[in-house]
């Protein structure tokens, strides 16, 4: 997510702006910029890279002004370059905008605005807002607040926006839709930011803004209205966090914060992916229908958690698109002389986009003639750059080493690809695509529902803290979920954990079951699932040998033999991994906390493994 700061008051604005952006660095970013409210014209400076690049570019004789906006950008539309950095300005250079989120209809707006003579200078979705606001401000007799209200009615997507105009530089206008925006109430000065970490050193008095609320701040005033212009009473509160806690949004660890960000991450990854006539929109994969129909085989290449997302891809793509899918551990792939030809589509999944094992594997595949499509969470990183196309997930920066929200969005991304391939190849009708996409749109709310049970689950976990090992059982798409649950426990709790396909139990692993061995079984989705009975038998088999069984089961599923049942909302079988994984993330998180481990930076691990 991007970092946003606004200031207006008696201080020299550059200080609270830059210090505020520094407090937001933890969110991850790849460029930074500011707009200072110099009367008559704005002072704009922005640079790719870290905040130091921006500071280094500021002139020694910087004008002392008392208002401005600042931004750290996590690139989504358009790479991390100077010209794509925020703020973005209108053609007169007098109105500046910064943005966090996704403007879904920016390209339609851009076409309309170019027709009206606006000249664009960046590849971003945000720039459309700068030109739109400029026109609307003129139509509203210079009233930037009214212009913002009108602009929001024309925008689709999730966003937080701040704007400033040189004709009234001490006035800053903000709005939020699905992305956070808070106001800091100072004494003769006021702030706005993505989160309170940016201004907590100046004030502990804050106002949380509601959906589609427009806020206007000046040194002495704060006014909030809805989109009709009706005043909204400010909901003021006292910030009780210290600065470190504020960076984690009040959560004790980034990992827990990122677990709770999963509904929004999944929602953002799904935004705008189905057209009004039920066509899956994945233009960025840069494949014509003819090329899609010519695919003979898909090879998914990844490591760790991303590999587990690739395993889910196999079930979904083979079921929906009827294309054979192989899933490969990247570090093994190129050393076994794989069969590759022009009919092979390689899908490389990587959160960081820098994993050397995956990078070396796709280089090998490209050299052998395969087309490579990356699924990545980090804009313009190496793997997308070396691929033929990239589908970016919109999980936002993932700070914790243990991958959570990135995994769920990787799974959602492979679902989208599976639906796209199935639609083009005529394997699924438009009505089926419509139904599946709309069921996916329900996933964020279902994840929220699971997150409401976090505390009882954390308490349950503490009862297993002294276990020597934990086994995970899953069948069909529950098998990669079992593997992911085991990996989370290994990397966070430093304990032995292993995931098995339920049917494999009797071929050896059942010998591991001892009195009190914890076994977590993921019951397949769908009450009439053919594998339900088989998994219920597995539960009986391990229970008969002394296991303590925790079952992840859908609401309404019949379960026997479980010591604990963790209920998750109903979803169709192939979509269940997005839901069943969440309790396992929480289980591993709590086990790590109980064992006193460094949750966000587990021992021996790096967030991005850039060596083979
Ligand atoms: C997952 O929790 C781990 N941090 C690790 O397995 C990770 O998924 C793997 O290293 C791949 O990283 P990538 O997605 O950045 O390529």
Automatic annotation (TrEMBL):
Q: What keywords were assigned to this record?
A: Aminotransferase, Cytoplasm, Glutamine amidotransferase, Repeat, Transferase
Under SUPFAM superfamilies, the record lists:
N-terminal nucleophile aminohydrolases (Ntn hydrolases), SIS domain
Signal peptide (UniProt feature, chain positions): none
The EC designation for this entry is 2.6.1.16
Which terms does the record give in the GO molecular function aspect? carbohydrate derivative binding; glutamine-fructose-6-phosphate transaminase (isomerizing) activity
Q: Which InterPro entries match?
A: GATase_2_dom, GFAT, GFAT_N, GlmS/AgaS_SIS, GlmS/FrlB_SIS, Ntn_hydrolases_N, SIS_dom, SIS_dom_sf
UniProt catalytic activity: D-fructose 6-phosphate + L-glutamine = D-glucosamine 6-phosphate + L-glutamate
Q: Where is the Glutamine amidotransferase type-2 domain?
A: 2-220
According to its UniProt record, this protein's enzyme class is transferase
Cellular compartments annotated: Cytoplasm
A GO biological process held by the record: amino sugar biosynthetic process
**GO CC annotation: what is one?**
cytosol
- Protein name, please? Glutamine--fructose-6-phosphate aminotransferase [isomerizing]
């Amino acid at each position: 997510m991007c970092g946003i700061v606004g200031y207006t008051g008696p201080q020299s604005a550059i200080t609270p702006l830059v210090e505020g952006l520094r407090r937001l660095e933890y969110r991850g970013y790849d460029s930074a910029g500011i707009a200072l409210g110099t009367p008559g014209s704005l002072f704009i400076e922005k640079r790719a890279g870290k905040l130091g690049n921006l500071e280094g570019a500021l002139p020694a004789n910087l004008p002392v002004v008392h208002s401005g906006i600042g931004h750290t950008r996590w690139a989504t539309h358009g790479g991390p370059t100077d010209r794509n950095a925020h703020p973005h300005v209108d053609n007169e250079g007098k109105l500046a905008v910064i943005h966090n989120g996704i403007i879904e209809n920016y390209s339609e707006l851009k076409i309309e605005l170019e027709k009206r003579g606006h000249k664009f200078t960046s590849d971003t979705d945000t720039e459309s807002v700068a030109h739109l606001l400029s026109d609307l401000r003129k139509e509203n007799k210079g009233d930037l607040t009214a212009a913002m209200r009108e602009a929001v009615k024309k925008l689709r997507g999730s966003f937080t926006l701040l704007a400033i105009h040189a004709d009234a530089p001490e006035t800053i206008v903000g709005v939020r839709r699905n992305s956070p925006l808070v106001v800091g109430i100072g004494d003769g000065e006021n702030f706005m930011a993505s989160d309170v970490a940016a201004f907590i050193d100046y004030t502990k008095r804050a106002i949380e803004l509601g959906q589609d609320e427009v806020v206007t701040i000046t040194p002495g005033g704060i006014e909030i209205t809805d989109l009709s212009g009706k005043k909204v009473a400010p909901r003021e509160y006292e910030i009780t966090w210290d600065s470190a806690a504020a960076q984690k949004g009040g959560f004790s660890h980034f990992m827990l914060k990122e677990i709770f960000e999963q509904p929004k991450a999944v929602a953002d990854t799904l935004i705008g992916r189905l057209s009004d006539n039920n066509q899956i929109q994945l233009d960025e994969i840069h494949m014509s229908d003819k090329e899609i129909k010519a695919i003979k085989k898909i090879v998914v290449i990844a490591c760790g958690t991303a590999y587990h997302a690739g395993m889910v891809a196999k079930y979904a793509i083979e079921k929906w698109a009827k294309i054979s899918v192989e899933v490969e551990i990247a570090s093994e792939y190129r050393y076994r002389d794989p069969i590759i030809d022009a009919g092979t589509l390689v899908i490389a999944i990587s959160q960081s986009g820098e994993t050397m094992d995956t990078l070396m594997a796709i280089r090998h595949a490209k050299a052998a003639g395969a087309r490579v499509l990356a699924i990545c969470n980090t804009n313009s990183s190496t793997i997308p750059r070396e691929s033929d196309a990239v589908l970016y997930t919109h999980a936002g920066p993932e700070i914790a080493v243990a991958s959570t929200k990135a995994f769920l969005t990787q799974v959602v991304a492979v679902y989208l690809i599976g639906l796209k391939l199935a639609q083009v190849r005529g394997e699924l009708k438009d009505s089926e695509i419509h139904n599946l996409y709309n069921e996916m749109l329900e996933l964020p709310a279902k994840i929220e529902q699971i997150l409401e049970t976090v505390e009882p689950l954390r308490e349950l976990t503490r009862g297993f803290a002294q276990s020597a090992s934990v086994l995970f059982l899953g069948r069909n798409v529950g098998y990669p979920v079992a593997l992911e649950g085991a990996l989370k426990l290994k990397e966070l709790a430093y304990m032995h954990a292993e995931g098995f396909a339920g049917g494999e139990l009797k071929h050896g692993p059942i010998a591991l079951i001892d009195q009190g061995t914890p076994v977590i079984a993921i019951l397949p989705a769908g009450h009439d699932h053919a594998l339900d009975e088989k998994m219920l038998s597995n539960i009986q088999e391990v229970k008969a040998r002394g296991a303590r069984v925790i079952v992840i089961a859908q609401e309404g599923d019949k379960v026997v033999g479980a010591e604990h049942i963790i209920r998750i909302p109903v979803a169709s079988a192939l979509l269940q991994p997005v839901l069943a994984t969440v309790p396992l993330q929480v289980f591993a998180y709590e086990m790590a906390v109980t064992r006193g481990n460094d949750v966000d930076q587990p021992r021996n691990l790096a967030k991005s493994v850039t060596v083979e």
